[in-house]
């Protein structure tokens, strides 16, 4: 009897390994793959959506843009072509939510440093204060890596229109004039087709963890 078990020991081990592989394959097949939604204006809280696009139910994409980064370079949608990226809106003199948001962006930057598919994009909502020189000082202070993360300034109306009509990130109404002010904690996850795939509270560590997981999901698509 002992000799029987000895003779078939290796066969049993191989059979066990094959069984584990088969069960794993079946489990993966039967487990639904998570797919991130493609956010349209009609799917988002109406308070966050400009009235001109509020009822749009398909084909929503981030509009073309032309802004200036911390190095004085012109940044457009072409710099983010075929990239997944995280966008937000901030200002360098903010003392409330922006420091927390920036620290979380730094954490994301650390996680994506070796991933050429992922970038970051932060828009100043006080472009009259956040000059190129000011953005550069801020970038150096926070450890911004130029190849991964653009801090951009430029025409206020363009930035505010992007926030309201493209990124669907702002609750307040306004036209980008001298009296208009945006202050939002939202991070937006944008796919390679310039579509919104997620909204996250940039002040909450748990939302940042979810954002990082969702980036992995997008990369697998």
Automatic annotation (TrEMBL):
Disulfide bonds: 94-98
Residues noted as binding Cu cation in the record, renumbered to the chain: 94, 98, 183
PROSITE patterns noted in UniProt: THIOREDOXIN_2 (PS51352)
Claim: Glycoprotein is one of the keywords in the record: no
Ranges annotated as spanning the membrane: 12-30
Any one GO MF annotation of this record: metal ion binding
InterPro entries: SCO1/SenC, Thioredoxin-like_sf, Thioredoxin_domain
Pfam families: SCO1-SenC
Keywords attached to this entry: Copper, Disulfide bond, Membrane, Metal-binding, Transmembrane, Transmembrane helix
Domain of life the protein comes from: Bacteria
Residue stretches making up the Thioredoxin domain: 56-220
UniProt family annotation: Belongs to the SCO1/2 family.
Protein name: SCO family protein
Organism per entry: Gelidibacter salicanalis
Lineage, opening ranks: Bacteria, Pseudomonadati, Bacteroidota, Flavobacteriia, Flavobacteriales
């Amino acid at each position: 009897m002992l000799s029987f078990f000895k003779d078939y020991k290796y066969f049993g081990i191989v059979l066990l390994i094959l069984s584990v592989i088969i069960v794993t394959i079946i489990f993966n097949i039967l487990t639904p793959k998570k797919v991130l939604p493609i956010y349209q204006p009609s799917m988002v809280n109406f308070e966050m959506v400009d009235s001109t696009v509020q009822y749009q139910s398909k084909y929503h994409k981030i509009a073309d843009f032309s802004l200036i980064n911390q190095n004085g370079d012109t940044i457009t949608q072409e710099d983010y072509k075929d990239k997944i990226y995280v966008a937000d809106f901030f200002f360098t003199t903010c003392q409330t939510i922006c420091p927390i948001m920036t620290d979380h962006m730094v954490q994301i930057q650390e996680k994506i440093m070796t991933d050429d598919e992922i970038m970051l994009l932060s828009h100043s909502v006080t472009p009259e204060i956040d000059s190129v020189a000011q953005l550069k000082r801020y970038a150096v202070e926070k450890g911004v890596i130029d190849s991964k993360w653009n801090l951009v300034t430029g025409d206020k109306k363009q930035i505010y229109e992007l926030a309201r009509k493209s990124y669907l990130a702002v609750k307040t109404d306004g036209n980008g004039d001298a009296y208009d002010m945006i202050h939002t904690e939202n991070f937006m996850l944008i796919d390679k087709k310039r579509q919104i795939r997620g909204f996250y509270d940039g002040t909450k560590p748990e939302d940042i963890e979810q954002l990082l997981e969702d980036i992995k999901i997008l990369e697998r698509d």
